UniProtKB/TrEMBL annotation:
Family: Belongs to the glutamine synthetase family.
Organism of provenance: Geomonas propionica
Protein name (record): Glutamine synthetase III
Gene3D superfamilies registered for this protein in UniProt: 1.20.120.1560, Glutamine synthetase/guanido kinase, catalytic domain
InterPro entries, A to Z: Gln-synt_C, Gln_synt_N, Gln_synth/guanido_kin_cat_dom, Gln_synth_cat_dom, Gln_synth_gly_rich_site, GS_Type-3, GSIII_N
Domain GS catalytic per the UniProt entry, residue ranges: 155-585
Domain GS beta-grasp: 58-150
Organism lineage: Bacteria, Pseudomonadati, Thermodesulfobacteriota, Desulfuromonadia, Geobacterales
Length: 695
């Protein structure tokens, strides 16, 4: 496809534009993780500028990922004034380093207003690209973002650190298996992206969607997703036209968007790419979210990336398909045809199980925010309890390891469908478990807890780091071994016995599993403030420090930022609810009650014998619900005021979760009850029926 990657300064373009020696030098940095040679920066910058200008670019920007969870950029023109006019110039210095304001981004106390300097640094492992918007073309250079004092202020630096940590420990283990050629192991990710689309006209009439990204009020329509007719259904023409444009934009950017389909809820859809190195996949997922939102507006729609934009139907997640690949072409989580005999595979599998069990709280923390709190535990989203699904074949092998003998692997075989004209289908070694948070799906693990609005950086930092730690502990033991096979068998057996508790192949939604998980000692952390505390636990800080992923200051900064974001989110939602209640819903209810009262007076004025019991009953119900609505609005105002007056950040977050959130639910219940009895022509907000089914 000529379209694919046409807006990317990829290795093919670099090979064409750069001198051979410079290209080889840069390629070694990209492929092998070697230090960047600063002497080549001017040559690369000149070639990059020439390529960009040929395609209409007038500006460049250092494109980075601050701890807001979205991307940031500052555009500078290639323009440089001269005595006779101006030139288009772009130096190596401008390519390598930029200086955005570090105090205006979340820093968790690492930077203050009077300490504003920060730096962006060129990440040459992620290719530069052109973004086309209307008639404007901008050269975007992926960068890292750090403070004047050297701390990471973004989501990219710790991710790259975690990838280096994983590589170092995985290479140690591979060398123990006799692989002396391997020099690098890279984590790979394919991030499935779920999203909702709503008509733009409805969005603009919903203050809650505009301010909070989700419906804070809204009675469920008579039909939701219970007929199961939207999932994989025929894609509507308007949506298909939108998807076509999304794909074209992403393909130009080199994003391997491959799969698209209707998701479970009406108005919900999914886009999935092919696997890539984790840092590239992270950049590309940010591009995916930006393109989904930008293109939707061109089609008079709005793309919603909130985890739970509509109550009562499926929420939106982001399934993080994670694996490890060596530079000699191995997928380290590929079981092969006889996984019980594949000692290398079993070693990496057991390291993953050990890591997930040991650091379950950290994994839960990596997916904690206010939006995901509404989603986890229902409608195909996993619960807050971390467990691992392996399927029957691998679970059986783990049992054999615990017993001290691995003799066989249950065969998958073929399925006979019973129709002669249909092919005999090969049966996979594992079923799929849509309720499991961390599921093995053939040759990778699918971490299903991520929310749809998340940067995938945070969860993958955690996964890379904790598995690096497990591999380190394995390597520390086995490198001292005098009988590798025997000591490996013993290590795997001890690990399986200790961490088998985290393996669960059943229904994660059942009450029985909650009870069973408690018996096994598995943590269950439904609350975001409680989950975030796992980030600053002693165990977490030790593992981050051991692998140079986060310093103690960087860990605490991120904790403060995430806690603050949680409070700010609920504060915005509460204020929006109060505003909508006082200025829209309560006045509407009063107006409608007045109309009903006038109807009663008008009818009885004609004749006292006419039956107005229906109107009177409706008026009484309206009056009761209106009084409850007013009382609940005042209660939310009081709870919000009390919470905002709490100085301690931990206690404030807990108060928002326990008190403000509870009052928000009560206010919503009364408003939704009013919606069900107020005539449609009076109701001021687009309804669920309109938003979910009109596209």
């Amino acid at each position: 496809m000529e379209m694919f990657g046409q807006n990317v300064f990829n290795q093919s373009v670099m090979r064409d534009k750069l001198p051979k020696a410079v290209f080889k030098n840069l390629k070694k940095t990209i492929d092998e993780g070697l230090p960047l040679d600063p002497s080549i920066a001017d040559v690369v910058a000149a070639a990059m500028k020439e390529w960009a200008v040929e395609r209409g670019a007038t500006h460049f920007t250092h494109w980075f990922q601050p701890m807001t969870g979205i991307t940031a950029e500052k555009h500078d023109a290639f323009l440089s004034p001269t005595e006779s006019g101006a030139l288009l110039e772009f130096s190596g210095k401008e390519l390598v380093k930029g200086e955005p304001d570090a105090s205006s981004f979340p820093s968790g106390g690492l930077r203050a207003t009077f300490e504003a300097r920060g730096y962006t640094a060129w990440d040459c492992t992620s290719p530069a690209f052109l973004r086309e918007e209307a008639d404007v073309v901008t050269l975007c250079i992926p960068t890292a973002f750090c403070s004047y004092t050297g701390e990471a202020l973004d989501k990219k630096v710790p991710l790259l650190r975690s990838m280096e940590a994983l590589s170092a420990q995985a290479v140690r283990v591979l060398k123990l298996f006799g692989n002396t050629d391997v020099t690098r192991v890279t984590s790979t990710v394919g991030a499935e992206q779920e999203y909702f689309l709503v008509d733009k006209s409805f969005y603009l009439k919903r203050p809650d969607l505009m301010m909070a990204g989700r419906t804070l009020f809204g009675a469920m329509s008579s039909k939701g997703q219970e007929m199961e007719d939207h999932y994989f259904g025929s894609i509507k023409e308007r949506v298909l036209s939108y998807m076509k444009e999304v794909n074209e934009e992403l393909w130009k950017l080199g994003v391997t968007a491959k799969t698209q389909h209707n998701e479970v809820a009406p108005g919900q859809f999914e886009l999935a790419p092919i696997f890539e190195n984790t840092n590239i996949a992270t950049d590309h997922n940010q591009m995916v979210m930006e393109v989904l939102k930008r293109v939707a507006l061109r089609h008079d729609m709005v793309c919603l990336l909130h985890e739970k934009p509509f109550a009562g139907v499926n929420g939106s997640g982001k399934h993080n398909n994670w694996s490890m690949s060596s530079n000699d072409g191995q997928n380290l989580l590929e079981p092969g045809h006889t996984p019980h005999e594949n000692a290398q595979f079993l070693t990496f599998l057991m390291a993953t199980i050990k890591a997930v069990d040991t650091y379950a709280g950290l994994l839960r923390c990596s997916c904690a925010n206010a939006g995901n709190e509404y989603r986890l535990g229902a409608n195909e989203a996993p619960p807050a309890i971390i467990s691992v699904f392996l399927g029957e074949q691998l679970a059986d092998i783990i049992d054999q390891i615990v017993a001290g003998v691995t003799k066989s692997s249950s065969l998958s075989g073929h399925m006979d469908i019973g129709v002669n004209t249909l092919p005999s289908l090969p049966k996979d070694a594992t079923d799929r478990n849509r309720t499991s948070p961390f599921a093995f799906t053939g040759n990778k693990f699918e971490f299903r807890m991520l929310g749809s609005s998340f940067s995938i950086s945070g969860p993958n930092i955690i996964i890379n780091t904790i598995i690096a730690q497990a591999l380190k502990e394995f390597a520390d033991v086995l490198e001292k071994s005098t009988n590798f096979e025997a000591d490996l068998d013993q290590l795997l057996q001890e690990t399986a016995k200790k961490h088998k508790r985290v393996i669960f192949n059943g229904n994660n939604y059942s009450d029985e599993w909650v009870q069973e998980a408690a018996k096994r000692g598995l943590p269950n952390i439904p609350s975001t403030p409680d989950a975030l505390k796992e980030l600053v636990s002693k165990e977490a800080q030790e593992v981050f420090a051991a692998h140079n992923v986060f310093s103690e200051k960087e860990v605490h900064a991120r904790y403060e930022i995430m806690l603050e974001q949680y409070v700010k989110t609920l504060n915005i939602e509460a204020l929006t609810m109060i505003d909508m209640a006082n200025h829209s819903i309560i006045p509407t209810a009063i107006e409608y009650a007045t109309t009903v009262a006038s109807s009663i007076n008008a009818v009885t004025a004609v004749s006292s014998k006419l039956d107005v019991s229906t109107q009177k009953g409706l008026l009484e119900e309206l009056s009761d619900k209106l009084a409850a609505m007013s009382a609940n609005t005042k209660a939310l105002e009081k709870a919000l005021e009390d919470a905002l007056n709490i100085a301690d950040a931990d206690k404030q977050a807990a108060a928002f979760r326990a008190n403000v959130f509870a009052k928000m639910l009560e206010l919503r219940a009364t408003a939704d009850a009013l919606e069900k009895i107020i005539a449609a022509k009076y109701w001021p907000l687009p309804t669920y029926r309109e938003m979910l089914f009109v596209l």
